[in-house]
Amino acid sequence: QVQLVESGGGSVQAGGSLRLSCAASGRTLSNDRMGWFRQAPGKEREFVAAIDWSSAGRTYIDSVKGRFTISRDNAKNTAYLQMNSLKPEDTAVYYCAVQTWLATWYNYWGQGTQVTVSS
To answer: Mean pLDDT, the chain, as a whole number?
Structure first.
């Protein structure tokens, strides 16, 4: 089992920055993909960014490219999402997730952290 705990959410004005962290526990992650998702009020949860074990492979949705950066520290079993130039439309609950080796989709999820961006 893997437990995920997000932190770093909060309220900022448009143009500001936040850094989200996702600490994993329960076992050491290896060959596992880590991702960030978000869900805004009244909308479905959407993929934001993902990173593979080696950090060589990173993917983003188009709306955050050039503003958000996903990274991970395998020694700390932690993933990060650096969010710059935040916009009101980035307001959502952000979730960390892990897709373990051989899983077909993300099979572990955190409880989420709120990000609110005011104009």
So the answer is: 95
* Residue 24 DSSP SS3: strand
The rounded distance, in Å, linking the Cα atoms of 93 and 51 is 19
Using an 8 Å Cβ cutoff, are 87 and 66 in contact? no
Phi, psi of 62 (to 5 degrees): -60, -35
CA atoms of 14 and 47, how far apart (whole Å)? 21
Question: Mean pLDDT throughout 13-34?
Answer: 93
Contact 26, 110 (CB under 8 A): no
How far is it, in rounded angstroms, from Cα 41 to Cα 46? Answer: 12
Q: How many other C-beta atoms can be found within 10 angstroms of the C-beta atom of residue 101?
A: 10
What's the rounded Cα separation, in Å, for the pair 101 and 5? 20
Instruction: Extract the tokens encoding 14.
Output: 């448009």
